Amino acid sequence: SQELEQSPQSLIVQEGKNLTINCTSSKTLYGLYWYKQKYGEGLIFLMMLQKGGEEKSHEKITAKLDEKKQQSSLHITASQPSHAGIYLCGADAVFGDAGGTSYGKLTFGQGTILTVHP
Amino acid sequence: DAGVTQSPTHLIKTRGQQVTLRCSPKSGHDTVSWYQQALGQGPQFIFQYYEEEERQRGNFPDRFSGHQFPNYSSELNVNALLLGDSALYLCASSPGLAFEQYFGPGTRLTVT
Lengths: 118, 112
Fold this sequence. Notes:
The complex is a heterodimer. Chain A contains no helices and eleven strands. Chain A starts with a strand and ends with a strand. Chain A has strands at 4-7, 10-14, 19-25, 32-37, 43-49, 55-58, 61-65, 71-76, 85-92, 106-108, 112-117. By secondary structure, chain A is mostly beta strands. Chain B is 0% helix and 51% strand. Chain B starts with a strand and ends with a strand. Chain B has strands at residues 5-7, 10-13, 19-24, 31-37, 44-50, 53-57, 64-68, 74-78, 87-94, 102-103, 107-111. The A-B interface holds A 4, 33, 35, 40-45, 48, 88, 90, 93, 100-111 and B 4, 31, 33, 35, 40-45, 48, 56, 58, 88, 90, 92, 94, 97-106, 108.
């Protein structure tokens, strides 16, 4: 089975600082998802990456998938207290170049807890 | 446009009892997946429903069962509850099997 390792497990930064969260897989990632979760609440979809070398941005958050499709990073620029929460990477259990489909059996990393001090 | 909704929000049950959790998918979505999230861990996939059939299943015992209705809503049933079943249960929906999943707020189940 696929395992996803996230690093760091927790991160405390001062408001305005940049930060990066990494997600590493032991196998080739087919679909890689980033979600944000407030403690005890549901997951908020951030971005989905599928192609090697793909990069997507939304507001101050940028996610990248490396060429080998085994590692993804989430970068936040000029962090704000509203960015605080738990960031989770998830991947489809389908591997290989299967024509761009995702089957939705997501495996998640353990999460990275982000604290942003004003 | 309502997102994914789940009920109830919180639930307390006793060991050995049975529980039913409910999920209404986002408008336009026909696929529902269920996840269990223990404290401090990432969500674990339980199963997925599409066209009223269970399409995929994670590593969960038969005590966990589900159903999808013609209006795409879904139920998760857990029989013979154990203390270890205490968790946040998340429902996610998508417009088919091949698209990103949108999660509901979850149901917090406590088994005493």
